[in-house]
Design goal:
Layout: H1 2-11, E1 16-23, E2 26-32, E3 49-60, E4 69-79, E5 89-91, H2 105-116, H3 122-129, H4 133-149, E6 159-168, E7 177-184, E8 190-195, H5 199-207, H6 211-215, E9 219-222, H7 226-233, E10 245-248, H8 250-253
Parallel strand pairs: 2-4, 6-9, 9-10
Antiparallel strand pairs: 1-2, 3-4, 4-5, 6-7, 7-8
Helix pairs in contact: 2-4, 3-4, 5-7
Length: about 250
């Protein structure tokens, strides 16, 4: 059963399963690309010559039942036969994992889903996947940046709320640091987070949003903080419609 399910999963990525074994409670899957495929140099277009294969060990998403999974990818190494070509040699690529990565793309997606569902911390996810904390964090941060840069991540918002949170308390050597969260007041969904709570900070965040998205906002809900109010009313925040209403958080009034 392990063999059959693995063959389907890796077959989608253009790889074939050559072996599956369970070692000390961990599922180990050996994969490689099928032979007989012609590969050409990206630099000069010459047909590449094989230099054999090289094993690359990757950590994959947990197998059924939560068992840890390791993938041993027997990667092909190619070389351009044209001595004048600057490309030289390279290893094959696949959607399984990016270059110089220790986690498969599926493992990163699994970790992102667990973190988003508040079902684990960075440290616990790193332990489950058998990698160091900084390795896990680098992959999660990269995935978050790609998601934030993607268009259509947040739909239209009619009622937009802002509130600050102390990110770091004051000490002898530093001032208090704040972060401000922008929230869809109708759904409670966080649509953006930025550092600071001054008028300039809010104006900067608004200026970074799509004009059409900002123009859809009809009401801005804030606490009685002058920085927020002046940012909404100032000319620097002119992306907001002229008729945008300001509502005060009822908790503050009560």
């Amino acid at each position: 059963m392990v063999q059959d399910s693995s063959a389907v999963e890796f077959g989608v990525l253009g790889l074939e399963v050559t072996g599956v074994e369970e070692v000390l409670g961990e599922v180990v899957v050996w994969v490689q690309s099928p032979g007989g495929q012609a590969v050409f140099c990206d630099g000069c277009g010459c047909r590449a010559r094989s230099k054999g294969r090289r094993e690359v060990v990757l950590r994959d998403a947990p197998f059924s039942g939560g068992r840890p999974q390791r993938v041993v990818w027997n990667k092909r190494v190619w070389v351009c036969p044209d001595a004048r070509c600057c490309v030289g040699s390279w290893t094959e690529r696949s959607g399984l994992a990016g270059p110089r990565r220790v986690l498969t793309g599926r493992a990163v997606s699994w970790a992102v889903d667990r973190l988003a569902a508040v079902e684990g911390s960075v440290a616990s996810l790193a332990r489950q996947l058998g990698v160091a904390w900084h390795t896990m964090w680098a992959q999660l941060a990269s995935a978050a940046e790609r998601a934030a840069a993607g268009g259509g991540r947040v739909g239209p918002v009619v009622k937009l709320g802002f509130d600050e949170t102390v990110m770091a308390s004051a000490s002898r050597r530093r001032r208090r640091r704040f972060i401000t969260a922008g929230v869809d007041a109708d759904t409670g969904r966080v649509v953006g987070v930025f550092e600071g709570r001054d008028a300039a900070d809010l104006c900067k965040w608004v200026s970074q949003q799509a004009r059409e998205w900002v123009r859809a906002v009809e009401v801005v809900c804030i606490d009685p903080h002058e920085g927020y109010r002046s940012a909404i009313r100032s000319r620097r925040g002119d992306r907001l419609r002229a008729g945008t209403q300001i509502a005060v958080d009822p908790f503050r009034i009560v």
